[in-house]
Structures are given as C-alpha cells and as structure tokens.
C-alpha cells in the first residue's frame, strides 16, 4: 500500500514536470522558429516589398507620381574678383562664394504606359523651380544680384572656331565675326545676373552670328556672304545643370523583381549612353537616388543614374544615422568614384581622347548641346586633386558642406534624407586666334557655381512611416521574445520541480534511515525544503495570476485590435498618402451611368383622353463616369476638406444596348420646357396680371414653332442639352415688348438629373473623428438645404455613398446625401454577400425613406403644397432651375404606391433590376459594389392657359427616364485589397491567439497550484503509514513474525 501511494505521488510529480518541460520547449521553439525562421519577418518583408513597388496604391507610388516632400535646389555662385589680372596673367583666379539662391523643386512623373506584365513603367519626368527667398541667403534676389564669371557661350564659340579651323576655311566669315565681336564689345569674362545664368538669356552677339548663317553684308569687303555656323547658338544660354533634358524614361516597377525596383531601363528613349568610350561608362545603371530596393545591406554598392552628370554613380555604406526617430544607413560617393582614369582603370571610359583629367573632374562637354567646355567636380574640389585648389583661390572644401550622400531607411529602401552636390567648372584657356579670348593665362578649371539638391522627410510623413512600418515590426518582435521568455521560464519551473522532487526523495530516504536507528524526532520527519517549496508555489501563483490578468485585460481592452483598427483608420482617412485619398481625388474605379429612356407609344390617345399612357423602355445608354475632386482648402486641424467635384461622362457603346447610339436614337415624351412654361403662366396668373399683348405674344410664338405637349428628341439632346429656338425667340419677344419672362428660360434644356450642379462642397476627413469620415458638412456653400419645409428634411446628412466610417455595425443606419434627388436618404442592413472573395454587408434603402408624408410623419417635410405625394414619389421641382414638374421615384415605381402602376402601362418593377443598394466592406467601410437607381417622372397635367398643353387626360406621373449609376471594384484592386487586409486579419488572429494563450497558460499555472496540495496529501499518507508501521513493530505478534522471518532468511 505504501509503495503504491508513493508511486502515485511520484507519477503526479512526473506528469507535472513533463507538462512544464514540454510547454516550455514548445513556447521556446515557437519563439525561436518565429525569430530565426523569420516567419513574421518574411510576412513583413513581403508586405514591405509589395508596398514599395511602383503600382497605384503602393506606399511610394503616389509620392513618385507627384512628390509632396519639400525638395530644394540651392545654387551657390562664384564671383571672380580679379578677372582683369587673370586675363593678363598677373594673378591666379580668386573667387568668392555667394548664395545660396534657393528654389523649391516641384517634381512629378507623368506615366505614359506600362508593359503587359507591369514590370516596366514609361514616364515623362517634370521639374519646376520656384525661387524661395526664405531659404535663400538674406536679402538675396536672383533677378537683381550679379556676379562676374566666364562668358561660356563665347568660350564655347572660340573653341569651336579653333577646333574646326574656321579662321582658315572661312576667312571672310571669321573676319566678320571678329569685327562684330569688337562692335558688341564681347569679353571673356562678363557680369550677369544669377537668374540669367541659371535660367537663360539672349546674347545679341550670338544672335548676329545666327543671322550670318542666313546671309549678311560685310562692309569692309562690300560683299554679301553666307557663313556656316553652329546650330542652336542663340539657345546656348544656360549652364549644363539647367540645360538638362530628362526626356522620356522607363524604370522597373519592382512588381516582378523587387531587386530591380526603380532602376532605369531607358533614358531619353535609349537603354545606354553613347558619349563615353567603353561599355561600363555608357551603362544606365541604378535608380534616381530617391529609392532603392528594400532590405538594404551595408555591404552592398548602391547605384544611381544621374542625368545631370551624364553617368551612373555608386555609393557605399559609411555610417548609421537617425532622422526623426527613424534609423537610417548613410551611403556616400567613395573617393574612387572621382579617381583619375589613369589611376583607377574602371574610370578610363570617362576620359576624353585628349586624355584623362585630374582626380575629381569629369568632362561632360560631349553630352551637352554645343559641347561647351563644362567640367564637373564635387563642390570646392572636395575629394579632388590638390593641384586644383592651388590653381584657384577662395575655395575651402569641407565634408559636411560638400559631400554627396543618401540616408536610406534599410527595411524599405526609401531615401529619407539626401544631399546631391555638384560643382560646375569651365575649362578656361586662351584661344589666341580669337581676340576676345586671347589672354596670357594658363588653362584653368574655373568654378562657376555649385548646386546642392537636398531634402529631408517631413515630421508628418515620418510619423506615418513609423506607424506603418515600425509598429508592426515592434509588435511581432514583442510576441517572439515573449514566447521565448515564457518558454524559458516554463523550462526553469520544470527544473525547479525536478530539484524539489529529488530533494524530497532524499529527505524521505534519510527519514527512513533515521527511523531504523530509532533516533527519529518529529522535526526530522519534515521535508528539508519546506521554505523553498513555499516560495515556488507563491511564485507560480503570482506568475499565473499575472498571465491570466494580462490576457484578460488585453482581451477585454482590445489593445491589439485597437492598434490594427487605428491602422485601418489611418488608411481610410482623407489625407494625402492614405489608401482612399488618391481614389477620392481621382477615382480609378470604373463608374458607369446607364440611362434608360421611356418612349411614349400613344401620345395622341393620351392627349385626347382615350388611353392610359403606354411606355416602352429603351436602353441602356451607358456612359463611363470619370470622377475627381479638386481640393480647395483644408481647415487648420485638417478635419474638414473643401473641394470642387468634377464629373465627366463618355459614351461607351460596349456597355450600351446593341446598336444604340445616343446622338441618333430618338424617343417620344413630354415637352418639359413647354409644360414648365405653361405651369408658370398659370401659377403666376400671367394672363390676368400682365398686358394682353404679352400673353398673346407667347401664344403666337408657340403657334409659330408648332409646338406640341409631346415631342421626339434624341437621347443625347435630352441628357446633355440643346439650344431651344422657341425659347430663344420667346426671350427676344420679351425684350422687345417689355413683357416679363423667366430668368434663364433659354438655358432650360436638360432634365434635373443632368442639370445637377454639385458646386463647392466640404466633407469631414475623419482625422479628428473617424465616425464622421466623408460626411458632408457643406454643399453648394450651404450647411443645410432650404427648399423643404422642416429642419429634418433640410439636413445635409451622410456621405456620397462611396465610403462610410470603418468598423461597420449591421445595426446602424447608413446615411447618404444625394444631390441628384436633393435630399439625404438612409440605408439599412439586408444581408452578407461575397464579392471577389471579399465579405461585404449589403445595405438597401429603407422602406420608410420613400413613404408618403401622410403615412410616415417624419417625411412630412418633403411634402410640397398642396399636399403629400403617394409613397415612392418625391417632388423635387423646387430645387431645380425654373421649377420644372419633375418627380423622382425608384425605377418602374419599385417599392411605390401600387396605384402608380395602374396609371401607366409598360412598367414591371423587379428588385434585382430596380433596387438601390450598396455593398460595404465592414472593416474599412469602403463600398466595393453599388447601384444607385433613380427614375425621373413628369407630373403631367392639362394646363389650359395654352392650347398645346390643354388635354382631356387626368394628372399622371409619366416616367421619362431612369438612371442607374453602378460601380464595382476591379479584379486588380480586389486582389490588392485582399492582400493588404488579409494580413491585417492574420495579425488580428495572431494577437487573439496571443491574448487567449496568456489566459490559458495563466489558468494552467493556477490549476497546477491548486493541485499541489494533492502531493502534500500523498506525503501525509506516507507519514501516517510510517506511524502505523511503528505501532505494528511494537505489537508482540508482529515483532515475533519479523524475527522469525529474519532468522529464516539468515
């Protein structure tokens, strides 16, 4: 019995130890696998790779298309202080630096096309420079400030004359050139404004030389001659840096190979350069220096192609940097980049036939128009041959001021800070045959100016970057290290249990030995590690409680869920760089507006009262709707954005009915301008209030144009407008007779739906309150409507139906403001649907929205005197120019009063064809598919003020047309969405698992603590067994049997 009990206790301890050990090993291995195996890091890396690819919606694409970063081009000019002494050979050139003259550089890239696999994008770079006094030197003005330097066009001309033996081949022309140079008083060194040198000027002397190529009279020889010249002389007005023509270029998008991200594949339509002497030098290699492939390695050599220097450059790692709490790698141009070609053989290809220039210099004359003697170097001859500094005084090279560098965020490859610095020098030398350049000086590389192009990420973009990139990485690292730490702790607990068990066995053994000797005391029967056991149990309890409480708090407070929701909220806010902003500014989703016209087949019978109107639906006439919103201003806290909506419609035969054409197809329906005029005459008592000549004139005009209440017009005319000759003539009569006429009568040429003027509007950006995302705060410069009869009806409430606040609740009402029907409406949840593997909530317009005000009192405000219309109808005449009798309804009177279908034949309402619905992605609130359908009816009635509008029919709401505006997310955007938000869902599941695991492990540890008393019971049982044995040993029968057994054994 004793051994069985002891075995039972040992087995319980063994199970506990093994459980702790296995759990610890599992957690430790899981953490190590996630860390070393790179599970999370691979997920994040893939996410980063996809986000930096050049593709619409990517992290860098919008910035690449139109840079919002403040890029500055700062020019420092070198004023030559001793030009006369230099010309006569009496002194070395001495220069004084002036500046900076700073220009804000506006960068954009106009996308021209993509390859079929979207791996290459072809584009046209655009650069605009705007002078910025604030970042320029104090008091500096580029248009007024001047400096002395070399006359580059003259120096270029002199070299061209010499190199082409012009003085010998064209003696008379050369003679005329010298004479004109003297007359124009041209000199080798000239004073010009900074603006002229940077951005161009016209040189009178060069203009004369161009005329000479067309034929001039040389007075000294009295001859008319035509002189050969160099093309483009008058256009030589700028230095190389400003004369750079970027041209059509192409770069790799990274979509098929992220390692080639933004690397040039073409520049100016060519895949390689042509002016250098070997293949290596002519390579177009690298990016534009603003982005490199993600996962930057410190050991890597990074390449950038620079059009300004007509070659590719390379950079190597120098040091770690930190900018706005973002860790960066600084890469700089190494010294060997500028080494002389004779010293560093790879640079041999950059040498000219005449030989290699000293270290630090690059002759780019061949890649410039007219081949001016332009030589580039680092500013102040930094990292250049020392002899260059000896040849020009006034220079002081410093690493911090003159070095070119890029500070790269290594995870994404995005350049967060950079400075590209280039000095432009002119190879000045005397050309003796040409008097203006005939000096007594030695050839010198004279600095003219240097440019420093720099930028640094803004505080806002840095914060966005940290949130989007660093936060997920931090969370995954915490999870990994927590699992490893927890696993190690479990293993440690298992080891402690093992030690305690071993000590207990030892104590039991000592106890039994002592008992055999008969020297056992009560305290000796107690375990020797009672205090350690107590500490262990307490630690286990505390740790279990910490895990359980932590897991419960995290689960209840939704900490991780809130982090992910915050990320979603950031993405859907209306702010530059967010997921939805670009789509809101210029929508790429294919919206289609489809119009169905109702052709009245029995107009004469209706007029005579002999038949109920019978209509035949024709269409659809489909138009691609191009949507954009032009931002006008933001509020100070960016909570409201004011904008001008723009809508453009393009007829699309492919999605229209077969053979349909809006400009050719006609249909018969009500003559709306004539009916509107008749109602106006009646409602204003025109015939009684105005002279008879006025009403007689109107009637005569109607007769003259042979107008009828029903007429045939083309679909295009009705939708997009036409000039009505009747209305134009009527206005002329009004002016001649002095009779009043309705303002704007000549321009009433369209139905309400197409006459909607969106006007300046404002919506909430969601920046300060995400629940108000994209809700209208103003429309047509008004915060509420004015044509309805109560405050509720006049509310401008809701979004434009393309976006709602994220984290959609099925129980909510979804409000939409619709300019098309001059009111707000609300939708309610109907069911869940799936579109392209994305789960959506379908919401539809609530039945109560179109109920008659007599049936549903909240709708009383939409009633217009003399009463409320039947359910389904909305009189919008008051919100239209000239108040035409336009009444809207759902198509085919769907969800409307049944009596309406009895007054018009040819209608067949169907839910699938005529219902308005929106399908919303619940996490983001983005509408992925939708259809807004509105029917326009004319309140047709007999108006006896004009014979043409007087009929024998009852008032009827005659369907005129209905419009169905439909949109659906494309396959490509659906794929992008799934990819992006599936990772968020994965992260959400991982965090849930993490939270629940804390609770489970905590509960498990507390359970272990509760089970530990069982081991104490085992111990007590064993002790009790020992006491029984002691008593048995004192019993004479038992003692005798034991002695007998011992004797027999002996």
TrEMBL record:
Pfam families registered for this protein in UniProt: CD36
InterPro entries: CD36/SCARB1/SNMP1, CD36_fam
Membrane topology designation: Multi-pass membrane protein
GO CC term (a single one): cytoplasm
Transmembrane segments: 15-40, 481-502, 535-560, 993-1012
GO molecular function, one term: scavenger receptor activity
Region (Disordered): 1026-1050
Compartment(s) where it occurs, according to its Swiss-Prot or TrEMBL record: Cell membrane
UniProt keyword terms in alphabetical order: Cell membrane, Disulfide bond, Glycoprotein, Membrane, Receptor, Transmembrane, Transmembrane helix
Start-end of Basic and acidic residues biased regions: 1026-1042
Stored PANTHER family: LYSOSOME MEMBRANE PROTEIN 2, SCAVENGER RECEPTOR CLASS B TYPE-1 SR-B1
Family in the record: Belongs to the CD36 family.
Name of the protein described by the UniProt record: Lysosome membrane protein 2
């Amino acid at each position: 019995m004793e051994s069985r009990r002891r075995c039972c206790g040992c087995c319980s301890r063994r199970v506990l130890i093994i459980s702790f050990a296995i759990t610890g090993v599992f957690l430790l291995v899981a953490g190590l696998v996630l860390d070393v195996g790179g599970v999370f890091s691979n997920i994040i890396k893939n996410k980063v790779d996809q986000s930096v690819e050049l593709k619409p919606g990517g992290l860098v694409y919008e910035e690449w298309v139109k840079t919002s970063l403040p890029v500055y081009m700062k020019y420092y000019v070198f004023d030559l202080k001793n030009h006369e002494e230099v010309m006569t050979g009496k002194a070395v050139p001495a220069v004084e630096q002036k500046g900076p003259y700073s220009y804000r550089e506006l960068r954009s890239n106009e996308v021209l096309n993509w390859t079929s696999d979207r791996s290459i994008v072809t584009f046209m770079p655009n650069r605009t420079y705007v002078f910025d006094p604030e970042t320029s030197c104090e008091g500096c003005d580029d248009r007024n400030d001047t400096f002395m330097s070399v006359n580059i066009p003259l120096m270029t001309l002199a070299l061209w004359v010499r190199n082409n033996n012009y003085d010998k081949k064209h003696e008379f022309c050369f003679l005329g050139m010298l004479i004109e140079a003297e007359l124009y008083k041209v000199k080798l060194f000239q004073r010009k404004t900074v603006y002229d040198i940077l951005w161009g000027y016209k040189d009178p002397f060069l203009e004369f030389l161009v005329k000479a190529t067309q034929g001039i009279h040389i007075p000294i020889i009295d001859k008319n001659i035509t002189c050969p010249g160099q093309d483009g002389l008058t256009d030589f007005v700028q230095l190389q840096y400003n004369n750079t023509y970027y041209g059509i270029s192409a770069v790799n998008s990274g979509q098929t190979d992220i390692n080639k991200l933004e690397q040039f594949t073409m520049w100016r339509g060519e895949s390689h350069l042509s002016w250098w002497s070997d293949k290596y030098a002519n390579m177009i290699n690298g990016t534009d220096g603003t982005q490199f492939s993600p996962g930057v390695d410190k050991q890597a050599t990074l390449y950038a192609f620079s059009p300004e220097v007509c070659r590719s450059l390379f950079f190597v790692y120098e040091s770690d940097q930190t900018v706005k709490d973002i860790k960066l790698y600084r890469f700089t141009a190494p010294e060997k980049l500028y080494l002389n070609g004779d010293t560093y053989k790879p640079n041999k290809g950059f040498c000219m036939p005449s030989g290699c220039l000293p270290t630090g210099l690059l002759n780019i004359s061949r890649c410039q128009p007219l081949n001016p003697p332009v030589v580039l170097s680092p500013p102040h001859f930094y990292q250049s041959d020392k002899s260059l500094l000896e040849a020009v005084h006034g220079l002081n090279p410093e690493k911090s001021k003159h070095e070119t560098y890029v500070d790269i965020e290594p995870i994404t490859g995005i350049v967060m800070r950079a400075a590209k610095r280039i000095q432009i020098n002119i190879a000045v030398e005397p050309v003796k045959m040409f008097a203006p350049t005939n000096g007594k000086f030695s050839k010198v590389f004279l600095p003219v100016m240097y440019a420093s192009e720099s930028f640094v990420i803004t505080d806002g973009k840095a914060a966005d970057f940290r949130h989007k990139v660093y936060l997920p990485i931090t969370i995954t690292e915490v999870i990994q290290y927590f699992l490893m730490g927890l696993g190690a702790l479990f293993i440690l607990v298992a080891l402690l249990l093992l030690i305690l068990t071993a000590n207990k066995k030892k104590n039991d053994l000592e106890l039994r030995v002592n008992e055999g000797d008969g020297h056992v005391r009560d305290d000796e029967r107690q375990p020797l590690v009672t205090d350690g056991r107590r500490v262990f149990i307490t630690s286990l309890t505390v740790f279990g409680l910490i895990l359980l409480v932590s897991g419960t708090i995290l689960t209840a407070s939704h900490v991780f869920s809130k982090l992910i929701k915050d990320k979603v909220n950031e993405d859907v806010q209306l702010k530059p760089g967010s997921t939805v902003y670009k789509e809101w500014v210029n929508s790429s989703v294919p919206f289609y507006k489809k119009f169905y016209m109702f052709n009245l087949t029995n107009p004469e019978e209706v007029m005579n009262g002999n038949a109920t109107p019978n209509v035949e639906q024709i269409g659809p006439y489909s138009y691609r709707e191009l949507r954009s919103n032009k931002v006008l201003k933001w509020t100070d806290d960016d909570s409201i954005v004011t904008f001008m909506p723009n809508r453009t419609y393009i007829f699309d035969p492919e999605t229209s009915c077969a053979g349909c054409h809006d400009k050719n197809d006609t249909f018969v329906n009500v003559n709306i301008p004539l009916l509107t005029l008749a109602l106006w005459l009646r409602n204003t008592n025109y015939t009684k209030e105005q002279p008879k000549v006025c009403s007689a004139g109107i009637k005569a005009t109607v007769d003259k144009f042979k107008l009828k209440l029903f007429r045939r017009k083309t679909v295009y005319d009705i939708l997009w407008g036409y000039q009505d000759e009747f209305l134009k003539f009527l206005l002329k009569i009004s002016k001649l007779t002095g009779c009043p006429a309705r303002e704007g009568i000549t321009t009433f040429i369209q139905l309400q739906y197409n006459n909607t003027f969106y006007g300046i509007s404002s919506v909430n950006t969601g920046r300060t309150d995400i629940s108000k995302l994209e809700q209208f705060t103003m429309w047509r410069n008004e915060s509420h409507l004015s044509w309805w009869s109560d405050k509720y009806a006049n509310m401008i409430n809701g979004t434009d139906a393309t976006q709602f606040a994220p984290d959609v609740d099925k129980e909510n009402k979804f409000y939409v403001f619709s300019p098309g029907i001059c009111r707000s409406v609300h939708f309610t949840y109907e069911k869940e649907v799936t579109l392209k593997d994305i789960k959506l909530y379908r919401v539809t317009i609530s039945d109560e929205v179109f109920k008659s005000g007599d049936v549903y009192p909240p709708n009383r405000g939409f009633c217009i005197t003399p009463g409320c219309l039947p359910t389904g109808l909305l009189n919008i005449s008051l919100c239209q120019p000239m108040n035409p009798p336009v009444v809207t309804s759902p198509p085919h009177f769907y969800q409307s009063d049944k009596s309406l279908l009895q007054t018009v034949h040819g209608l067949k309402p169907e839910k699938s064809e005529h219902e308005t619905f929106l399908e919303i992605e619940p996490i983001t609130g983005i509408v992925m598919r939708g259809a807004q359908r509105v029917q326009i009816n004319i309140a047709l009635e007999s108006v006896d003020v004009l014979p043409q509008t007087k009929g024998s029919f009852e008032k009827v709401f005659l369907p005129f047309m209905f419009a169905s505006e439909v949109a659906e997310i494309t396959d490509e955007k659906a794929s992008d969405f799934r990819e992006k938000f599936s990772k968020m869902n994965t992260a959400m599941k991982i965090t849930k698992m993490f939270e629940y695991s804390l609770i489970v492990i905590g509960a498990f540890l507390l359970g272990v603590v509760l089970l530990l008393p069982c081991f104490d019971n085992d111990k007590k049982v064993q002790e009790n067994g020992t006491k029984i044995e002691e008593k048995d040993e004192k019993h004479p029968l038992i003692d005798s049997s034991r002695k007998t057994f011992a004797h027999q054994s002996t």
